[in-house]
Amino acid sequence: MNRRIESDLHDDAADAVWLQSLLHDDAERMPYLDDAGFSARVLQALPPPRRRWLEGLSGLVIVAALGSGLLYLVGLLQTPLAGMADRTVEHFSLVLAQPTPGSLLSLLAPLLALYLAGATLLED
């Protein structure tokens, strides 16, 4: 699989060199075309660039608020969650002490689900 990626990267680099040479050759053959200031007017008419840091800051505030709310809920559910954590650790220790295909599946299925969810998020 890595060889295919390296091959694709090599092909992209070769295509970029080929395209650059075509553009360079074409620019040498064609004289400059005066557009009577059209390009400058178009560039002046473009809106100013947006402030990306402000969008990142608002996202950070939203994540912080959600995290605070989640911590509050965890504080409310601390006692039941502690009991559930104890049962989960006990289950895992029993599975690892006497592994069977079904019990190993109960360990691997959640990990596979998390892996697939992460891979799906990274693709987008």
Describe this structure in words.
With 124 residues, the protein is mainly alpha-helical. The chain has 5 helices and no strands. It is elongated, with a radius of gyration of 29 Å. The protein starts with a helix and ends with a helix.
Set out the fold topology.
Blueprint (H helix, E strand, L loop, with lengths): L1 H28 L8 H8 L6 H25 L1 H20 L3 H23 L1
- Which word captures the global form? elongated
Unreliable sequence segments: none
The helix-strand sequence is HHHHH
What's the oligomerization state? single chain
Number-wise, the strands total: 0
Structural class: mainly alpha
C-alpha-based Rg, rounded? 29 Å
Roughly how much helix do the residues carry, as a percent range?
Answer: over 70%
Number of domains: 2
Most strands sheet: none
Average pLDDT value?
76
Strand content range: under 5%
Distance separating the two termini: 21 Å
- Number of H- or I-type helical stretches: 5
